[in-house]
Amino acid sequence: MSSPEIAHRLREQYRRQSDRFRFRGDAAPDDDLELDALASPAGHARGSLKTYFQDAPTHRFYSSTENRDATVSFIGHRHPEWLDKIIEEAEALCAHRVNFLSYRDIPLGASINWHRDPISGFDWPRRYYADYDLLQAPPADAKVIHELNRHQHLPRLAKAFFVTGDEVYAREAIAQIESWIDQNPKWLGINWQSSLELAVRCISWMWAIFLLLPSESLDETRLRRICRSLFAQLDHVYRYPSVYTSPNTHLIGEAAALFTAGVLFPELPRANNWRDFGAATLIDEMQKQVSSDGVYGELSSYYHCYAADFYLHVLTLARRNRIQLPETVWNGLSGMLDFVVYLTRPDGTIPLFGDDDGGRVLALDALDYTCFRDGLSTGSVLFGRPDYKFQARGFREESLWLLGADAWPIFDSLAAQPPAEPCRAFARSGYFIQRSGWGAHDTHVTFDCGGLGIGSGGHSHADALSLTVFSGGHEFLIDPGTSVYNCAREWRRYFRSTAAHNTVVIDGKDQSEPGDTFRWKTKTPGHLRTHLPLAESDYIDADTGTTSARGVVPHRRRIVHIKPNYWIVLDAFDGMGEHDFDFFFHFASKAQLAVMSDEKRGEVECRARIEDAGLQLCMFGSDVVSAEVLCGQTNPIQGWASTGYGDRHASPVLKASMRAKAPAAMMSFLVPGKQSVRARRFKANSSHTIAAAIRDGEYDDIAVVAVEDGDMQLLDYSMRGEFFWLRTENTSLHRLLAVNAYSFRYRGETIFESSEMIPYVQAYIWDNGILIERGDDERKVYVRDLRDRQLQHG
Q1: Using CA atoms, how far apart are residues 359 and 366, in angstroms rounded to an integer?
Q2: CA angle, residues 198, 204, 207, in degrees to nearest 5
Q3: I need a labelling partner for 452 at 20 to 30 A (CA). Which of 110, 220, 240, 485 fits?
Q4: How many CB atoms lie within 10 A of CB 206?
Q5: 86 — phi, psi (to 5°)?
Q6: What is the pLDDT of residues 40-64, one digit of tens each?
Q7: 3-class DSSP assignment, residue 484
């Protein structure tokens, strides 16, 4: 620990012990002096706190609650289906049935016990908040009780009153808050244990208050009681921020709650401290936690959306109150939404890299971030971005509540346009996103060659060099997700493991060795070697140094996108000795797999189908390859996926195994589409070469990869280099891509030759000439007439 951290932790420990004495002393509750000061102008008799809310804070809160008529009118005229859903949800909530995490229609009982886990039935003991140990063998998953007590269902109840005027919904929301206050006096119980949980609950309560403000049921007495608890919780967050304990979304969320309260209640003397701390922290953490290419530093797609949403709420409130936050914060949020634009698949969902928290900043409509189109909808208005609108696919309900009905004309005036480029590299963070286009049935591929994120890497997985594939409107190759954090060590370990991702396990060992729930004993990050974003292909080269029981075996994976139709995956393993290489491909649970293999030839073909969509995987290894499909296996655990926190279901996995001496290699084709294509292997002159052809429309494409350096002879081609891709028609060569190559000859003609390795060479060949682009000095050579050998240099 650094000296500042040691000092901070000592001060925090002193405060906790001091608070413990006050807690044990059963100190009398705070009186109403500060609430009287808010309710009454200086020197006047005690006034109304509710009048204060109506006269001041309501004009500072989000405009949707201030302009009730405009908000209700917008819903009634433009989205009456929202109203139906709002009422349906509110009726269930009045019956004490809730949805959270992956759990649906959970009964809480006639009288809600806010300390009872409704999933396991465990009743958390009431004790001083600092006396819980949630990391070492907790008696139940604290995530469940925390999520329930975020009270994100209460703004939904309040929203139902706001749009219908029905006091039934207001009375129920207020009754639930009051029952929580009765059961959770200051510092008593699990619901005071985490500052982030208090912060999110405070955000929920503030929204509930302003949505309920027109209600007769929210009288002076009840409002004062709610505010006493609200301000006590905010004080606790300010007193115990996660500056060093969880300097990630915990700290961002706590700062967002304090900033919000500080903006709303500046007449409260200590609120200025809340606002100043919140603003300074949010500015600082945008620099610390978000990379220059806009990716949240924990390298979890879910937490990325979580962090971006906190900033959306804060910056919307800041703009409404004419508070100037630095351009670095606005630019940082824009960069984060850029990442979401590319990360979002054609159906609106995102792949779940890393951990899945399962919650949201505010769940007024969507329950989680498996889809974050609402953030893009809001961002399109804040930033005037047509590409955000394109991916949002419509004005979202959350945008109405954050921005008000006045945001609709701005959104409507934007002409939705997809980004100019379908592929995007977020190289600093190690994410590459490629797609065949922006249509509903286009293919979306992600490749991860990043590390384990900032800090301890607690929310990252051992997934270096993994990929996902979405095509034809369906997930095919998936990231299996998270399932749970606590109370299931073997499942937590599996979902974080290398074997739970679409990459390679060497000698049965994870790339990084897990420690505690949110820690690693060892870390092995991915590393980008080269990226060649070419006009008709995209080439990514990355590696990771994997340590096995039999020595260090670097794993190198290259992804070649032959635009727009298919992908080539090249896996290479260096080192010495014999090793076991297990290639995992995790498919969506709906996928039906047909697997054919020729073990001795090192060939595996897998055809996956979901409805009328398909994905074909053709693998060609440098040695004998065996294949099997695993699904729902428990010893060892394999073949499982999770679509949300708490969920776990069987899902098919193709496991292709190769035992070989290093160096070894595997070449795989990923071909999306309804129709299967023909792929075949060639026998080259060298055993250290893998060569195969695949049919792409009217062309036969040939890929050649060298396992070791040396001259390679194949059909009419002689070559030396790492990788070659050839497009042929009726045996005639039309296009060539060579990467890290020395020479290439075609039918006796030298296309290029060099004593030094050339990063890449592209050649376009027709009857009388060749256009060559060399990657070393970007020099183009045009051979006008092959018969005359006349050259023109460009």
Answers
A1: 10
A2: 140
A3: 240
A4: 22
A5: -60, -45
A6: 865 555 689 999 999 999 999 999 9
A7: coil
Beta bridge partners of 696: 699
Residue 793's pLDDT band, with cuts at 50, 70 and 90, is very low
Residue 40: predicted pLDDT: 82
Task: Give the chain's domains with CATH numbers.
Answer: 66-240 (1.50.10.100), 277-420 (1.50.10.100), 428-675 (2.70.98.70), 678-794 (no CATH)
Q: How far apart are CA 383 and CA 388, in angstroms?
A: 9
CA distances from 473 to 470, 609, 615, 713 (A): 7, 12, 12, 41
What is the per-residue pLDDT for 789? 47
Q: Which of 587, 583, 521, 596 is nearest to 557 (CA)?
A: 583
| Distant-in-sequence, close-in-space partners of 593: CB < 8 Å, separation ≥ 6 | 587, 606, 607, 608, 629, 652, 654
Structure tokens at 301: 């797609």
Nearest to 170 by CA among 208, 143, 201: 208
Contact 453, 568 (CB under 8 A): no
CA dihedral 786, 787, 791, 794 (to 10 degrees): -30
Secondary structure E strands in 413-526: 424-426, 431-435, 444-448, 466-471, 474-477, 504-506
Give dist(CA 260, CA 321) in Å, integer: 11
Q: What is the mean pLDDT of residues 352-360?
A: 93
C-alpha to C-alpha distances, 528 to 21, 501, 523, nearest whole angstrom: 54, 19, 16
Residue pLDDT, tens place only, 496-532: 999 999 999 999 999 999 988 899 999 988 999 999 9
With CA atoms as reference, report the closest residue to 265 among 92, 81, 58, 126.
58
- The label of the residue with tokens 């890929």 reads 703
- Under DSSP, the state recorded for 12 is H
- 11: enclosing H helix or E strand: helix 3-24
Average pLDDT, the chain: 93
Q: Which residues contact 469 (CB under 8 A, 6 or more apart)?
A: 443, 444, 445, 475, 476, 477, 567, 615, 670, 672
Give the count of alpha carbons within 13 A of 341, CB side only. 31
> In the numeric block, which tokens belong to residue 296?
């949240």
Show Cβ contacts of residue 284 under 8 Å, excluding neighbours closer than 6 positions. Answer: none
Closest CA to 452 of 327, 582, 314, 355: 355
Do 156 and 401 form a contact (C-beta atoms < 8 A)?
Answer: no
- CA–CA distance, 224 with 310 (Å, rounded to integer): 27
Q: How far apart are CA 784 and CA 786, in angstroms?
A: 7
Residue 669 identity (one-letter amino acid): F
| Structure tokens that stand for 51 in this block | 């009048």
Residues in the chain: 794
Share of the chain above pLDDT 70, in %: 95
- Band (pLDDT 50/70/90 cuts) for residue 787 is low
Q: Could you tell me if 669 and 608 are in contact, meaning their C-beta atoms sit under 8 angstroms apart?
A: no
3-state secondary structure of 328: helix
pLDDT at 626: 96
3-state secondary structure of 541: strand
Cα distance between residue 165 and residue 184, in whole Å: 30
pTM over 0.90: yes
Cα separation, 435 vs 342, in Å, equals: 9
Q: What's the distance, Cα to Cα, between the start and end of the chain in Å? A: 58
